[in-house]
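Checked the freezer inventory, then went back to the computational side. Two predictions to log before the end of the day. The first one is the construct we discussed on Monday; recording sequence and tokens without edits.
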Amino acid sequence: MRPSGRNLDELRPISIETGVTAHAEGSCLIKCGNTHVLCTASLEERVPPFLKNTGLGWVTAEYGMLPRATHTRMRREAAAGKQSGRTQEIQRLIGRSLRAGIDRVALGERQITVDCDVIQADGGTRCASITGGWVALRLAVNKLMAAGDVLSDPITDHVAAISCGVYAGQPVLDLDYPEDSEAGTDANFVMTGSAQMIEVQASAEGATFSRDQFAELLSLAEKGVSELVAAQAKAIA
């Protein structure tokens, strides 16, 4: 039995509320169980210097956790004067993932920055950030299209992410913190709406895993991502 009482292939309750901030071109609050992330997408009519005069657009991301997102207060990284390696790794993952669902030629020479701020953490914050970040990105692109600033839709597919792992010897979907902290294997899958893989992060956390177990995790991830994509589609409808 999982600590939450969920079935092995059951997601935590998912909700995505859009339009939660007044100023961002796209925004949403995604809740995956007790993990809550505020995602905003900001449009700028410029690109980084290495893309200037190329005609290519850019999507990037920033990620952070509020001090009391976890059980004990964390010091703000701004107060420490630098980002942790974990934060840098996660925001690069979010940026890579979202760019995989964008036609940068169709986007044109402009940048969209997706900010993902974790309000409350209970495992799977990077996956929730990617899933919610795509919704914020979609809403920002919708504004570009409504204004006639792009000729065709730059978004080529949904992008969503889910965690899986081997907990108490069983492959399970969508780890919460009690499972994540005890899992023998921990994996994150980033996929498109058409079930194409963008990135897979999988590691043994005290116990190795077999090829068959990895295949089971992949099957769980495909199921989970399809349900997340359905939630995204409902949110932006």
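The second is the one RB wanted added to the comparison set:
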Amino acid sequence: MTKVCQRMCIRGMVQGVGFRYHTCHEALKLGLTGYAMNLNDGSVEVIACGESAHILKLYEWLKTGPRTSRVDTVSFEHTDLKNYTGFVIR
């Protein structure tokens, strides 16, 4: 099992709608570590670390997000591997 970290930036109506909470729930179900954080430009940044296949599942979920949100775009890029404990909301 190779562990990797990915940075995803989600744009759309993703703040004030429980997006980070639901993302945290999905990431924990997949056994990922990292965080979800609101950015000043209205987007949400997600850093997810774990198995590539599980990160891809989270990425697919992020393209839709929870019912309360509207996702316009999700960018996806590799980032340096870090050891996070759990998955948190920042």
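For RB: Strands lie at 3-13, 33-38, 44-51, 70-79, 87-89. The two ends are 28 Å apart (CA to CA). Let me know if you want it refolded.
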